Amino acid sequence: MKKNLGRTLCAAVISFLLALGVLGIKNEYARYLPGGSYGMKPLVETGGAKHVFIGSSMFRQGLDIRVLEEELGDSVYILSYNGNQPLFMAMELSYLLDQGVEISHLYVDLYGYTAASSPWISDTKILLDTDLDFKWATWDQMKEYNHTSLLDFYELFVTANNEQLLTWPVHSRLLASQFYKGGTLVYSGGTTREALDYSLGEREGVHPAQEAGYKEIIRLAREQDISLTFIETPKYASMEGDETYTKLVSQCLKAVEGAPVVLAREVEFDNTDPCSFQDLIHLSSQGREEYTRELCRAILSGETRIEEE
Prior knowledge:
Layout: H1 2-29, H2 40-46, E1 48-55, H3 57-62, H4 65-72, E2 76-80, H5 86-98, E3 102-109, H6 112-115, H7 125-128, H8 132-145, H9 150-159, H10 162-166, H11 168-178, E4 179-180, E5 183-184, H12 208-223, E6 227-231, H13 237-240, H14 243-255, E7 260-262, H15 285-300, E8 305-306
Parallel strand pairs: 1-2, 1-3, 3-6, 6-7
Antiparallel strand pairs: 4-5, 7-8
Helix pairs in contact: 4-15, 5-12
């Protein structure tokens, strides 16, 4: 009986250690999987790009990669994750620089609602692109500002992206057909005024951790001699005029004092046309192409303003 119990315990310990080993390999080395046209990995592999856009779905749905190439040249990349927040954008920039990525001009998403959020990873794809140290730093930030649980830890380090890893040959091909240099190739239709008749609700204000993220981006850019521009992509007219949103934009501008900014209203674009929007904050394919072309003209002509300190 004791002998069988000992064997069972031994098997359990070995299984546990093997599981830890597999998790360690996944969290440290998944970033070396071949293929990819989205996220940080392609940028690290190529060594960088002259024009790099770091943001959330605002950039993924708001910037047309083909137009960017046409207007700014071939050396361009869009790094976007759903719900990406300023704090994590700063961490991403630091990680890229540590990996030897070279950037001439950095463009950063300025979106009030993500800046008002408590630090949290919405898009776990970022965990496939980074090493274990980045994941621990991410967890530390999430834990510091939220009531986290063992389940949150389990989801972050154990279950996140398992489906993609198990189906990687198919998954990587699917991404390759949907993205090019980080920019989406998927067609997105417009909508109607009736469908845009809603609000995203109130927020208290820009979160201190997100404000610190903005300031860290500015510091890193200055330290590495990288040109920096913050960009607010268009929001539907009712959203742009919303009291909560305008308050958050104002607070974001204060957080990035001293850095060049291109606000949506400063680019020639009709944000009253529902055909240009999927929803209140995301552009349709039509809107994305039109806005990106006008944005590039503003960038190339130097029509950016500095938020005075």
